[in-house]
Amino acid sequence: MILTGAGCPLKRRNINKHIGLVVLVVASVLVVGSGYGFLGVKTDKASVADKKGSGVAFPDMMTQLSRNMALWERMGGDEKKQAVEAVIGLYKNRDNVAILNTGEFYAGKIDETLKGNPSVANMDIMTLLRVLSIMEYDFYNGENKDALARKILGEKGFLENQTRRQMSARFGVQQK
User: Fold this and answer.
1) How far apart are CA 140 and CA 154, in angstroms?
2) Which residues sit opposite 139 in a β-bridge?
3) What is the average pLDDT across 47-52?
């Protein structure tokens, strides 16, 4: 006697096997995926630092940074990048100046500068970004790069910057 149809015990057993197999595969993918970070569950120190925030609204943050850099250390990576990109945009729209490196690049440069010379924290973000971009020969305002660097950095600072740039080029030092 052959039974067919939905009530057949053989068909029910096969369906249950398929459902069980699908559940097992999905559960395995979730466990393995989360362990390797495929699903965004695993975080590293850099991504945690980027999510850290100052708790200050963007307009207030920019107002504070336009006075000095005291807030900078409390800011997260995304906020720093956003602040630098806002200043780059302001230079572009207000002064017709192009700065080609990214906000992330200059956020890293600002971090390095503040760690190396804490007194720089008394500068505002516009001035600091202008000086750093001139040092990187990335401040495109129509002036000769050497003349602009010499004018802003002074003769001694200009020569030190030239040495730094030559060392970077000669030895392939990657800048952040």
Assistant:
1) 19
2) 99
3) 46
Alpha-carbon torsion (34, 38, 41, 43), positive or negative: positive
51 or 72, higher pLDDT:
72
Q: Round to whole Å and give the CA distance between 126 and 137.
A: 16
- What is d(CA 54, CA 42) in angstroms, rounded to the nearest whole number? 23
CA–CA separation, 71 and 44 (whole Å): 24
Cα separation of 110 and 90, whole Å? 18
SS3 assignment, position 7: coil
Please, which residues have CB within 8 angstroms of residue 99's CB and are 6 or more apart in sequence?
Answer: 88, 91, 92, 106, 129, 133, 138, 139, 140
Mean pLDDT for the stretch of residues 127-135: 97
